[in-house]
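[audit] Reproducing an earlier prediction to check determinism. Same input, same settings, fresh worker. If the C-alpha cells differ from the archived copy the diff job will pick it up downstream; this log only records the rerun itself.
[audit] input (183 residues):
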Amino acid sequence: MQVPLQITFRNTESSEALEAEIRKRVDKLNRYHLGMISCRVVVEAPLARHQKGGLFKVRIDITCPEGKLEVNRDPDSRNHAHQDPYVALRDAFLAAERQLEEHRSRRKREVKNHEEALHGKIAYLSPMEDYGTITTPDDREIYFHRNSVLNANFDKLTIGTSVDFREEDGDKGPQASSVKVIE
C-alpha cells in the first residue's frame, strides 16, 4: 500500500491484539488484491450504557487505482455474534474481500456474458403432454417444455406466436429455455 494503514477505535481504548488482527487481515487483502492504495479501518464499540449485549460495528474504506470501496458492517441486532469484536472484524473483512474480488473481476472484464436471445414462432403445441416446438428463422425445430415459458400461461399460447428464447442442449437434442412471448 502506498498510504499507511489507519486504524481508529471509537467508544473504546485501542487494543494491541485487535490492531494485530486488523493488520494481519489487511496484509492478507493486500497480498491477494494488489494495487490497494490505502485502507482505513474503524472499529466502533457499543456505547458505555450498552456494554452488555451491545454490538460492534466495523467500517473499512479501501482506495484502489480505479476507485473506492466501502464496507460498513452495521450488525443485525438479532445477530449477537457481533458482541465479539473479532467476529465483527471477520465478517467485515470477508465482505471487503468479496467486494475486492468483484471489483477485480469487473476490471478484468470477467463478468458473465449472457447469450443473445434467439427468435422464433410456436410451431406445435401439445398441452396434454406439456410441451411444444419452436421454429427458428433458419427452419430448425426446437423443443420446449411448459416450465420454460416465462411471461405467459402455456395454455394460452397459440401456433404462430412469436417468442424469444435461449437454446441449450437437452437429452434429445436442442431445447429452448426462458421462452418469452414477444408482445
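[audit] rerun output stored. Observation attached for the diff report: The longest strand covers residues 118-126.
[audit] end
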